[in-house]
Write a structure and sequence with these properties.
The chain has helices spanning 19-29, 46-55, 68-74, 80-85, 104-115, 132-142, 156-168, 228-235, 245-260, 267-273; strands spanning 5-11, 34-40, 58-63, 77-78, 90-94, 97-101, 124-128, 148-152, 175-178, 188-193, 211-219, 240-243. It has 278 residues and is an alpha/beta fold. The protein folds into two domains: 5-102 and 246-273, Leucine Dehydrogenase, chain A, domain 1 (Rossmann fold, 3-Layer(aba) Sandwich); 105-243, Rossmann fold, CATH 3.40.50. The protein has a six-stranded mixed beta sheet with strand order 2-1-3-5-6-4, sandwiched between helices. Strands 9-8-7-10-11-12 form a six-stranded parallel beta sheet, sandwiched between helices. β7, α6 (132-142) and β8 (148-152) form a beta-alpha-beta unit. The chain is globular and about 60 Å long. Bound molecules: NADPH dihydro-nicotinamide-adenine-dinucleotide phosphate (NDP).
Length: 278
């Protein structure tokens, strides 16, 4: 048997990453001869660490915090999503070529539309936060042709600048941005929490009237159970609640398919690493 192809996730810290578990299970299920490990990249030494991985024959990397911007700078070719996000979460190495992709937003949209059964076309979508995760989600959501996509952020100027940068690159007028105080007049069908508030058990300042009862409340954070945002949504009467575990697994599946040409099944893995929303 030939020696396995090498892949890894690089980040700092990295011990919490579920990517090795997910990708090794994908490889086993699809009979791909590969090994996938975790690399704790020393801060400030992204390029040198990736150079060493490639010199040892590494074929591809997932990239997580704090290196997603470094991954863009390191690449020789950026996908549309990586360019729009200004960040990459997957690299593929072929000789001197370094291709970069950002699958976070595509993974989010696939989880919402495919796994959770909520079409985004013609819907009113609210995206909370204007950081890296929000930036990466905007283009894939717009590709679904929602009736509107409103980006709300605590620091209003950041939301405005983010939306302006997408408009400058041809985004439609259905993309709008502003502060939380602009919310509450009309309900949204899908509300996605892309703030990091749930990591500190904080609640984004969202009026109950922003939620549509038959809509979806989605928290990108995963493994935290019923976050304050999801609690707020439940109290507002929203019946469908989800955390970001499906987004995590779907972005991994996209990267796997890009590297190996085989798209793995995701449902069993999502079920395996899901934490009940209680
Ligand atoms: P960033 O640090 O880039 O952005 C954080 C955002 O959260 C900012 O817009 C910030 O607002 C806002 N924020 C932080 N605290 C609060 C609060 N108490 N109230 C309101 N807004 C707040 O983070 P990322 O964009 O990288 O990540 C956001 C979340 O998405 C994280 O929880 C991360 O775990 C999750 N994520 C999940 C993924 C998955 O696969 N499921 C993938 C990637 C991210 P301000 O600008 O005002 O500071």
């Amino acid at each position: 048997m030939t020696s396995p192809d090498r892949y890894a996730v690089i980040g700092n810290p990295i011990s919490q990453s579920k990517s090795p578990l997910i990708h090794m299970a994908f490889a086993q299920e699809s009979r791909q001869n590969l090994v996938y490990t975790a690399i704790e990249g020393p801060l400030g030494q992204f390029a040198a660490t990736v150079d060493a991985f490639r010199a040892e024959g590494g074929k591809g990397l997932n990239v997580t915090l704090p290196f997603k911007l470094d991954a863009c700078a390191y690449a020789t070719e950026l996908s549309e999503d990586a360019r729009a996000a200004g960040a990459a979460n997957a690299l593929k190495f072929e000789g001197d070529r370094v291709q970069a992709q950002n699958f976070d937003g595509v993974g989010l949209v696939r989880d919402i539309t495919h796994n959770l059964g909520q079409a985004l076309q013609g819907k009113r979508v609210l995206l909370l936060g204007a950081g890296g995760a929000s930036r990466g989600a905007i283009l894939p959501i717009l590709h679904q042709a929602p009736a509107c996509l409103f980006v709300a952020n605590r620091t209003v100027a950041k939301a405005s600048a983010l939306v302006q940068s997408f408009h400058a690159n041809g985004a439609p007028a259905t993309l709008q941005g502003g502060g939380f105080d602009e919310l509450g007049r009309d309900a949204f069908d899908v509300i996605i929490n892309a703030t990091s508030a749930s990591l500190s058990a904080a609640t984004p300042p969202l009026p109950a009237s922003a939620f549509a009862a038959d809509g979806l409340a989605y928290d990108m954070v995963y493994g935290k159970g019923l976050t304050p945002f999801l609690q707020l949504a439940r109290q507002a009467g929203v019946r469908q609640l989800a955390d970001g575990v499906g987004m995590l697994v779907e972005q991994a599946a996209e990267a796997f398919a890009w590297w190996r040409g085989v798209r793995p099944e995701t449902r069993a893995m999502i079920a395996r690493i899901s934490v009940p929303l209680v």
